[in-house]
Design brief:
By secondary structure, the chain is of the alpha/beta class. The chain has one domain (about 5-70): NAD(P)-binding Rossmann-like Domain (Rossmann fold, 3-Layer(aba) Sandwich), CATH 3.40.50.720. The protein has 2 helices and 3 strands; from the N terminus they run βαββα. It has helices at about 15-25, 65-70; strands at about 5-10, 30-35, 55. A 3-stranded parallel sheet has the order 1-2-3, with helices on one face. Helix 1 links the parallel strand 1 and strand 2 (about 30-35). The longest helix has 12 residues, at about 15-25. It is globular, with a radius of gyration of 13 Å. The protein starts with 5 loop residues before the first strand and ends in a 16-residue tail after the last helix.
């Protein structure tokens, strides 16, 4: 049986992405969730099988580490979706 692909979800700790991660996990994908504080987001791991969801420490605003991360994980296509809300 072929191994499922790995999906990296930036912003994976948000409301919409959490639901996306749960659906991807049910389909058997391996999921990597980069975040600044992985110890705060351990609740993501039980959404999948043991070892299926990996929460990694990562700073998205450090562009050199973003490049290194993409090369290390062999990410070819990258989409970063950022929602920003500011109240006045």
């Amino acid at each position: 049986m072929a191994e499922k692909k790995t999906i990296t979800v930036f912003g994976g700790t948000g409301f919409i992405a959490r639901n996306l991660i749960a659906k991807l996990a049910k389909k058997g994908f391996k999921i990597i969730v980069p975040t600044r504080n992985p110890y705060l987001h351990g609740y993501l791991k039980p959404m999948g099988e043991p070892g299926q969801i990996e929460v990694l420490k990562f700073n998205l605003f450090d562009f050199s580490s973003l490049n290194e991360f993409c090369l290390k994980k062999k990410i070819k296509n990258l989409i970063i979706y950022i929602i920003y809300f500011q109240s006045f």
